[in-house]
Every structure is written in C-alpha cells, then in structure tokens.
Design a protein that fits this description.
The chain is mainly α and 154 residues long. It contains five helices and two strands; from the N terminus they run ααββααα. The chain has a two-stranded antiparallel sheet. Strand 1 and strand 2 form a beta hairpin. Helix 1 packs antiparallel against helix 2.
Length: 154
Amino acid sequence: MRGAHVRILAHLALACEGDCEGHAVSGYVERVLRRYLECGILAYGFARARCPECGHDFLVAFSCKGRGVCPSCNARRMAEIGAHLVDHVFPPVERLWRRVKHEDVYLKGYATLPELLLGLTEYFAFYNSERPHQALDNRTPDAVYHSGEGGGAS
C-alpha cells in the first residue's frame, strides 16, 4: 500500500472512533474514503475490456467513479483537445496579452507589483467598458454582455 493510503487509513480509523477533536465521521464519508482507497487497484477487482474502435485489449480496475475508457482512445482524445486549445483558445488569449503589454505595460513601465496590479485593473476596466472593439461592431464588451447578445453561454 502506498504511503498516502496508509496515512489516510490511519486518520480514517481515528476519525471513525471519534478521536479527531471529538467528532466522529459519518458513515457516508467513511464509505466514500474507503472506496477511494480501493479505486484503481487491480487487487480489488477488475474487468477485461476491448475497445471497439481500436481493438486494444486492457484491464480496467473497478473504480469509485465507474471509469471505463480505453487508455489508447483517451490519449487520442487528449491530443485532439490539445490541438483545439492550441488552434482556437490560446491565440485570442495571446493577442489579448500582446495588446495589454504594448498598450499599457510597456508604456507605463510599472516599478512594483502593486503598481502593476492597479494599472492592469484600470486597463481592463477601460478595455471592457470604454474601448470599442471591431469584432463587436465597434461596441464595448460590457455593452455586448449587458445586451444579452454575443456568443457567450446562455
């Protein structure tokens, strides 16, 4: 058993007896912690599985979360998500921080961290409420947000 598991078991035993500051752990918490300690360990039971997509054969340890995803397909999904982040999520964030650096940080040359934090707070207040954005039909982000339009979550 791993060191963390041993420590959790020791604390759980004390807590179940009510020795931890006079409070006993509820039955639900004890069950969840015990299932967590058994999670993913083949000795506590497993199933043999085959991925229908790639044909990979593997063992899946019984889990507290009911996991059952093929590791090789999961790796493929992670690569696809990583590619999506690099292509579609990070570029707008990079553009924003490039703009912040050139329009504020480099021009003002903040000397201390508190000055920088105050300056960025002021810049983002300006950026969101006063500065029109071409991508928003020359409206401010605050105006688009308060109008209920745009591509945000509804």
